[in-house]
Amino acid sequence: MRKVAQKNMLWLKKELPVLEAEGLLTPASRHDIERYYAEKTESGLHWAIVVFAVFGSLLIGSGIILLFAHNWDELTRPTRAVLSFLPVIIGAILSILALVKNGGTALRESAGIFHSLAVGGSIALIGQTYHLPSNAPGFMLSWALLILPLQFLLSSTGAFLIYLALICGWSGAAQYEYAQAAGFWLLLLPALGKLWAMLKIKRNAPDTLVSFFGIMLTLLISTGIVFERTVPGLWIVAYSALLSCTALLGLRLYGDREGWSNPPKLVGLIGIGVLAYLFTWSDMWRDIGWHNVRNGWQYKPWGSSFDIAITLLFIGGWLTAAVKAFRRDSSETITLAAFPIIGIICFFTGALGGNETNTLTALFFNVFMFFYGIMYIVIGCRNTKLRQLNGGMAVLAVLLVTRFFDQDFGFLARGSVFILLGACFLIVNLITARRKKNMEDAS
Amino acid sequence: MKTVYLSALTLLIITQLAIPYRMIRSHERILSEGALFRFQTRPIDPADPFQGRYVRLRYKSSSIKCKAEEIEGLRRKDPVYALVIENDAGFAELTGWSRKKPTEGTYFKTRYRYVDTTWHKESSTRTTNGIRVDISFDRFYMDEAKAPRAETLAFESTRNSNCWANVRILNGNALIEDVFAEGKSLRELAAKKDE
Question: Are A70 and B13 a contacting pair at CB < 8 A?
Fold first, then answer.
């Protein structure tokens, strides 16, 4: 059943008699429209109710953890041991209530968030009662595994995001404590499965979009953490493939939708911009490749094979996304798909040619970034989309301003370029805004 | 479908309650049946966002004597077992270590940190004394107001007399029972200052 906001329904109810009086609707069609909205739609929950419910449960859950953290000396050890069950029991009652009553978004999210936090609070209280040694990875892993099913049982995005935050935190703690966190990939699988199911059922729903953002951020942060870094510079290939795959996935799944309504594309485009900018510095290409493999207690003997396997997995994902989303007539698709190819070529150039090739590879990415910016300015102008236009301008501005300081030009030259760049921004924006207004007026 | 979901949720809740229960039971067993050792220590006071304020215990000796050949192949953070005995002064002393679980004596599971060496200036040589291990039972949780005060009191008391932690050890697991300064429990000392 479609969800329509209550205020829109009220507006429609007021409008229908007016349209009928004007002769635009027949009494029969007015009746049909009224019947359709009465039978086939339901009032959508206002987003503010969901947000307040989510924040409420977040605050209460965190408050309970802080109350326990005060460490009540007056309470005996057995009392504290019994008390440690209390948060889980309250969370469990809320979750059962949400399931039995077929709870709406607000109840399910509140229950999911509170229950997830309660489990962590309970384990932490036992740790405090028995003066257990600090074991951050063990604590986060137990917490994550114990709340894992909640995201599926309650369909709670909050529980899903808490799980993602925990496995992301676990990857950092485990990498520090055990010098490896390969288990992250196993922990990520259920979350990927959940997202897959959401994409199949409700691709454009807000909770699917938020979950997509969560997965992308976790993947981007944790890949850097769990990478063993035994082969210096391999991350360049891995991240290029991952971000290109992400952006192409966005084009494939959400087509021309932009911004927050296309999370993979947004993350992919920003990521490619940031990565391309980093690669414009020659220092990024220093001492890379298999001739500089790292050794030491913090590097595992299987580290290089593991990193290569992850990189190949990302390359596989990129190739699949490129084949599925490729369009010969779209310069955007071609550029996004070509990004890892440039990364791979530059990685091999740096690995084989040594540090003498650093300037060449950095120059290559300067050219790419310049083209990347120009491309989005052209696309933005052609489609009259200010977001793309300004994005392209921002990419270009960052590149030019940085290179500007980098090359140590004179004050006159610097001043002229700044004025020109600023004027370009204003004029192009003005022209596009006028074109957009004219188009809206014409339609 | 709802019944399946409810059954799965019930199973999950039972697991969520069973794990804390198991943790409590095993730790209560260590406290009631574990061998008691006194570890000489010096406390400092940090905080944990989830578990609150605690007194961190810095133990006087985490070194175990051994020959250089025995350390070969040992990588940092490798799990090891540390053997512990009570010395003539009545305090705990680490006497040996092994990669495998010892079959006799009192021991606790820990991690190898680094080689303990001495630099001889005259001969410009370095000799190996043994290994340093992590002593993981280093947190003593206290009331958020009392923990900093306890740290100061214990720090003052360690200038003249001993400060130690009573630790219970059972089957390779160690748990702090209480911390003492000037022969009195740290909680007692901090509470007295309150009055």
Answer: no
